[in-house]
């Protein structure tokens, strides 16, 4: 019996040590500005364009919503102070953030991480203490509610629910409040890779998969959070008027400017996969000439 207890204690100690070794330290100042590794034109200059739905598994409802969008919408007083949703915060042009551990003062265990300096200061907390997600009736936030679990390889799997009704891209592609995001945080020395999977049963036909890479930047500073300044950006806009395209409008601007087939510019799940390259080649050979239209 004594030998069995000793063996069991040794096994538990070994398992505990292995589990501790698998807990990668993700704390630090992480910068996208020191090297934007993915989709530079989309996330930087010139940014996402009107009518650019390429590689997004959006459905017809989402496409109709996006076609109605106009850039002037962001000048509305109600829209000027909107933070980025959590699904976009980690993909924004330069989400330079600080990730810091939350320490239980009694056990000194890491029970979570904070992520600070996201756009609009919709800063996040990722809980690692096993707490449950709130009721489906709980308040939805720009940053949602996030819990995480360490994986055997040392990566961190994060699940986020309770996200506000918002957007997939800043060109009108919507995100419903029923969306859920799964992230995998994987550290490679001074590089942090975050794989992002967004599921939305209302506006996406398949999961939307993206990656973001950040570099450790110890000199980076997180500034004091300041409130937005809201003012009349378009004085000529009539009170109560919302800039929008009429129902049935098909936005062909991205296809026209970039000389792409309209089918490709309109997005959809089929445009995400390598097999679509053959179809795209055929369309390019046909050289369709998209024109602005108010009818489908």
List the helices and strands and how they pair.
Elements: H1 2-21, E1 28-31, H2 40-43, H3 60-67, H4 77-80, H5 86-89, E2 97-103, E3 110-116, E4 124-127, E5 145-150, E6 156-161, E7 166-167, E8 174-175, E9 180-188, E10 191-199, E11 208-216, H6 253-258, H7 262-265, H8 276-286
Parallel strand pairs: 4-5
Antiparallel strand pairs: 1-2, 1-11, 2-3, 3-4, 5-6, 6-9, 7-8, 9-10, 10-11
Explain what the structure shows.
This protein has 296 residues and is α+β, with helices and mostly antiparallel strands. It has a domain of 159 residues: Lipocalin (Beta Barrel), CATH 2.40.128. Helices cover 21% and strands 22% of the residues. It has eight helices and eleven strands. The strands form two sheets. It has a nine-stranded mixed barrel with strand order 1-2-3-4-5-6-9-10-11. A hairpin with a 5-residue loop joins strand 5 and strand 6. The longest helix is centred in the N-terminal third of the chain and has 20 residues. The chain is globular. It starts with a helix and ends in a 10-residue tail after the last helix. The C terminus is likely disordered.
Order of helices and strands: HEHHHHEEEEEEEEEEHHH
The level of helicity is 10-25%
Can you tell me the CATH architecture of the domain at 28-41 and 72-216? Beta Barrel
C-alpha geometry: globular
Tell me the strand order in the biggest sheet. 1-2-3-4-5-6-9-10-11
**What percentage of the residues does DSSP assign to strands (E)?**
15-25%
CATH level 3 topology of the domain at 28-41 and 72-216: Lipocalin
Number of strands: 11
Radius of gyration: 23 Å
Mean pLDDT: 87
What structural class do you assign from the helix and strand content?
alpha+beta
Euclidean distance between termini CA atoms: 78 Å
Number of helices: 8
Unreliable residue runs: 8-21, 292-296
Biggest sheet overview: 9 strands, mixed, barrel
- Indicate the CATH class of the domain at 28-41 and 72-216: Mainly Beta
């Amino acid at each position: 019996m004594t030998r069995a207890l000793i063996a069991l204690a040794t096994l538990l100690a070994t398992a505990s040590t292995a589990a501790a070794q698998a807990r990668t330290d993700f704390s630090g100042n992480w910068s996208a500005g020191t090297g934007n590794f993915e989709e530079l034109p989309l996330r930087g200059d010139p940014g996402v364009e009107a009518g650019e739905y390429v590689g997004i598994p959006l459905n017809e409802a989402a496409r109709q919503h996006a076609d109605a969008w106009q850039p002037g919408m962001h000048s509305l007083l109600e829209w000027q102070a909107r933070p980025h949703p959590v699904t976009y915060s980690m993909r924004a042009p330069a989400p330079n953030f600080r990730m810091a551990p939350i320490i239980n003062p009694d056990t000194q265990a890491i029970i979570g991480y904070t992520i600070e300096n996201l756009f609009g200061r919709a800063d996040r907390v990722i809980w690692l203490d096993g707490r449950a997600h709130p009721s489906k009736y709980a308040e939805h936030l720009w940053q949602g509610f996030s819990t995480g679990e360490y994986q055997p390889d040392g990566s961190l799997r994060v699940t986020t629910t309770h996200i506000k009704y918002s957007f997939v891209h800043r060109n009108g592609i919507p995100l419903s409040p029923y969306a859920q995001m799964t992230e995998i945080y994987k550290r490679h020395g001074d590089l942090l890779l975050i794989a992002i999977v967004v599921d939305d049963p209302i506006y996406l036909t398949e999961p939307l998969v993206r990656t973001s890479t950040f570099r450790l930047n110890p000199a980076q500073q997180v500034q004091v959070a300041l409130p937005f300044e809201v003012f009349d950006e378009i004085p000529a806009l009539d009170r109560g008027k919302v800039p929008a395209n009429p129902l049935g409008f098909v936005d062909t601007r991205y296809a026209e400017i970039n000389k792409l087939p309209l089918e490709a510019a309109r997005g959809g799940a089929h445009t995400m996969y390598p097999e679509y390259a053959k179809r795209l080649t055929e369309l390019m050979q046909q050289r369709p000439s998209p024109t602005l239209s108010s009818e489908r």
